[in-house]
Task: structure prediction
Amino acid sequence: MQIHETAFVVSTYRSYHEDVSKDTYAKLWNNPATDALIPDILKSVSEHEAILHSLRNRFFYESMNSFFKENGGGTLINFGSGFSMYQFSFDDNVSTIEIDKKDIIDYKKEKIDHWTQEGKLPYRDVQYAAIDFNKNSVEEMVNSLRPIIKKEPTFILIEGVVFFLNRTTTNKLFEVFKELQKPGDLVGLVTYLPEVENTAVYERLLHYFDSNNDTNDAFSHQTIPRSYFSKVNGYKVIESTDEFDLSKIHASEHSIRDKTQILNESLFILSKA
Ligand SMILES: C[S@@+](CC[C@H](N)C(=O)[O-])C[C@H]1O[C@@H](n2cnc3c(N)ncnc32)[C@H](O)[C@@H]1O
Result:
């Protein structure tokens, strides 16, 4: 599986549970090649993957929507944005910067412009930046992003991405966040905690990636301990939860009873000090 395929897969998951994800635009990205991948993932890794990704979207949708409403708008800076569609559900005083690898950014911009012209999407101010987090330096990233931040405050989102990065790149990204943000600005981040590595379902996930790996598209498998976030320079954690706890609020009918049986991601909101 190539990294860009993971972006199609999670977008399709959100479209399966619009009532939970609150993403009514995800289905625009659905396509037969992704539909063909999903049954095998649900069977060989975990049947709960679609609802868990929808819960993750719901959490950030609500966090960002209330942040931007309280502040009369601002900028969502989405690192590894894939096919996220949050901005089309927010008020039009929210600008967005989409950051991803070049092939995703080019494809996404073309599709978004087309669907906006067709009236399938409301007009929103969206800027695009093609960046490879592994290859570009802190300075290069800051220099390309700073000039396109038009409105403050900012909410940086990095959702479904750090698993694919190593710790050096993650540290580098926090340096970029610190340079771009002002006190009170927020970062929303998703990660697996190291304890998830001991579960059978996580082993099945790694096995799935290993057996479906595209040799030109190598990626890391990172987990990050909670202590990393309490020590990160310039930020403090103001909220944290996980998909298991969110399932009790928004998906109780899915009978998810044991957090060790699911690929339970942890979600953090950090505030710039
Ligand atoms: C699983 S998708 C998640 C997409 C989106 N954030 C979401 O939750 O729907 C992972 C995304 O991270 C991007 N990504 C992974 N490694 C990256 C890197 N080194 N530089 C830039 N983007 C990267 C991929 O291209 C992909 O779009």
